[in-house]
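**User:** Here is a favour to ask of a fellow structure person. Please take any protein you like and set down a full record of it. No explanation is needed for now; the record alone will do.

**Assistant:**
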Amino acid sequence: MKIKNIRIGEISVPLKTPFKTALRTVNSVEDIIVEIHTDTGNVGYGEAPPTGVITGDTKGSITGALKEHIIKSIIGMDIENFEDIMLKLDRCIQKNTSAKAAVDIALYDLYGQMYNAPLYKLLGGYRNKIITDITISVNEPEEMARDSIDAVKRGFDTLKIKVGKESSKDIERMKAIRKAVGYDVNLRIDANQAWKPKEAVKILRKMEDEGLNVEFVEQPVEAHDIDGLKFVTDNVSIPVLADESVFSPGDALKILQERSADFVNIKLMKTGGIHNALKICSVAEIYGVECMIGCMLEAKVSVNAAVHLAAAKSVITKIDLDGPVLCSEDPVEGGAVFNEYKIILNDVPGLGIKKVNGIKYLD
C-alpha cells in the first residue's frame, strides 16, 4: 500500500453557539483536511485546525508545511514501512504540529485499513465506548448557569467550565453553576493560561473554601511558566492538569519528573499526532499518572482519531472530546458515533471514515 497522492482541502462547519475562552471567541470550525490516496485505492483522512493562539499554526502555515515539506518527504513510501514514514514526517520540518498531526492521523487510518482492523484495536483495544464532558463557554454567571442546566438535561454529567476572562467573576461563575446543577454533576475548570501563579492559588483556595467541589483545574498559568505551574500544584488541594505546557513527550516527562502538575492533557494537534501521543501515554504509565485527552475546536475527522486513542489506552481516564457535539452539522460520513455524551466505536477498519462532504480542495 504505497502513498500515491496527497490532497489538501478546507471545510467550514458552523457552531451551535459561539465558543468563548479566555483566549478567543470562535463561531465556526475552519479546518484543513488531508486525504492520502494509495495505489490500492484506499484513502486515509486527517484534519488540522488553525489554532494560532495555542499551537501557533494558521491555515497558511499548515498548508505551507504540507506542500513544501511534508508531502515531498513521504510521497511514494509504503505504509508497511510505518516507522520510517513517521521518522520522515517528524524530521522534515520543525514544529508545525497541526500539519504533522493531520498527516499522522491519515497514515494511522491507512495503517488500520492495511490490517483490516479498527485503529483502537491495533493500539490496545481497551474499550469500544467512552464518555465525554462538554465545555461551557465563559460568559456572565447567569448565562453559564443556563448553559450548564441545558447540558445536564442532555445527559452530560461532567462539565468543563471555561474561566479566566475577567477573573474577578470566576468565583461567581462557579457558584452560579454549582447552585444550578447541584453536586451530582462533576465540574472541572479550564483557565487557558489566564492567571498568574499567586492569583491562581488565591482563586482556587477560595473555590475550596466555598465548597465548590472542583474536580481539577486545567492550565491555570502561562504555558512556559513551569515553575508557576508547580507553585500552584504545591499550594492547592484541587488537582492541576497541564495542557498547553505539554506538546511533546519530553514536555510530559519534565513535568512529571518535577511534579509540576498532577496529570497531563494529550491533544493530537500539540503532539503532532498519534505517534507521539502514544509516547506520552507510556511516560504517564511509567510515572503512574493518569492522562486526559482533549481536542481543539475540531470537526469529526481528527476528534475521531483521538477517540480511537482514548478507547485503546487505559491510562487515558478523562475525556474531553466534545468538538463534534458543538458543531451544528457533521460533514463526515462514517467514523465513531457521537451521541451527546456517549461516543461509540465500530469495527470498520482504520478510522472508519467513508467520506468528508463539503471539502474545498486547495490543490
